[in-house]
Amino acid sequence: MPFKPPRLLIAYDDSRGLCGSVVPRMKQMLEERAFSVDTFVLGGDIPDIGPYAGVIVGAPVLRLGLRPSELPTPVGVFLDGVEALDEKKVAVFSVYTAWPGTMVEALKQKVGELGAECVAEYAYWRLKPEWGEHVVPAECMIRIR
């Protein structure tokens, strides 16, 4: 039987272009690890996650990251509206300009409240996105198969 790569969805809020600055490289690294990857910019319809083995959710840190983070509206709407997230393995990431703050923790908490398993998390610094860029793809390779 031929190999069929597991499918992943990267769903992210691209406010200020923050998450969009790391998604192409993340997608490439996941595809190099034998995943089939689709991307979806949040802000309108909620995608059907049924066909995916896992979902990666990204949110920008829009302020300096010094105060407790609230989920940006597109991410909150997605997480509140998506069906069967508790049946998927989920990774989360944030992208920040000045300080990572607590966005990754807020994402992890929300995912946990929805009953899903969070398998990876990372906060990317916009100015040096290559630092730690392997974390989410490597953890997905190990934990989503």
Textual characterization of the structure:
This protein is α/β, with parallel strands linked by helices and 145 residues long. It has one domain (7-143): Flavodoxin domain (Rossmann fold), CATH 3.40.50. The protein contains four helices and five strands. The chain has a five-stranded parallel sheet with strand order 2-1-3-4-5, with helices on both faces. The model has no long low-confidence stretch (mean pLDDT 92).
Write the layout of secondary structure elements.
Layout: E1 7-12, H1 23-32, E2 36-41, E3 54-60, H2 73-81, E4 89-96, H3 103-113, E5 117-125, H4 135-143
Parallel strand pairs: 1-2, 1-3, 3-4, 4-5
Total domains: 1
User: What is the helix/strand order?
Assistant: EHEEHEHEH
Helix content: 25-40%
Shape: globular
N/C terminus separation: 17 Å
CATH architect. name = 3-Layer(aba) Sandwich
Classify the secondary structure makeup into a structural class. alpha/beta
Which strand order does the major sheet show?
A: 2-1-3-4-5
CATH topology-level name: Rossmann fold
What is the mean pLDDT? 92
Q: What's the CATH H-level superfamily name?
A: Flavodoxin domain
